[in-house]
Amino acid sequence: MRNELCWEAEVMRSVITALIQFLLFTCAVQATSPEAQQLIDRAAADCSAFENGEFDAGNAFTTIELSSQFGTVEAELVDESEFACSSAASLYCGTGGCMLNIIIGDTVSAWQVTGWRLIDWGADSILLIGRDGGWCGGAGAEVCYEALLWSNGKVLTVGPAP
Q1: Is 3 a member of any domain?
Q2: What is the phi/psi pair of residue 52, to 5°?
Q3: What is the pTM (predicted TM-score) of this model?
Q4: Is 52 helix (H, G, I), strand (E, B) or coil?
Q5: What are phi and psi of 41, to 5 degrees?
Q6: What is the total count of domains within the chain?
């Protein structure tokens, strides 16, 4: 009787642990907008399709605010550098960086980046993205940066539109 109770307790502990892990994983990859969730779901499907890989979105989803004297907007970021696939080390990134998807309203724009940072410059909140040198007229190994700013209902930048 005692061994049976210990076995039942162990099974119950395993079930609860698995349920908690499942809920934490599910919450971690849920995005706010359907557009962001679609990007995450597509990446998970690509991973699964490649040798039945297991997908982890990591901390790919972030909400930011871009602002200038001409307006403010909330944007969602899906940073594919955070994605991981157990069966493919480089499924989401290449030598020029990873895709950073920016969702404003129902519009998705994407930039290939080596990293990003939100910076404050006076009253402006600017998304600074690291770029492969090829985007700036240099060699691929060189580093350059592009600034994205919200102004009068659109993203302004000196770089080419994505």
Answers
A1: no
A2: 55, 45
A3: 0.77
A4: coil
A5: -65, -40
A6: 1
Per-residue pLDDT of the chain (162 residues; tens, 9 = 90+): 656 655 565 655 655 544 455 544 444 455 689 999 999 999 999 999 999 999 999 999 999 999 999 999 999 999 999 999 999 988 999 989 999 999 999 999 999 999 999 999 999 999 999 999 888 888 878 889 999 999 999 998 987 666
Residues in the chain: 162
Which amino acid makes up residue 73? V
Residue 84 lies in a domain: yes
Which tokens in the block code for residue 81?
Answer: 């550098």
Q: Is residue 10 part of a domain?
A: no
Owning domain of residue 118: 31-156
Q: Which of 43, 48, 33, 56 is nearest to 108 (CA)?
A: 33
> CA–CA separation, 45 vs 124, rounded Å?
38
Question: Is the residue at 15 inside a domain?
Answer: no
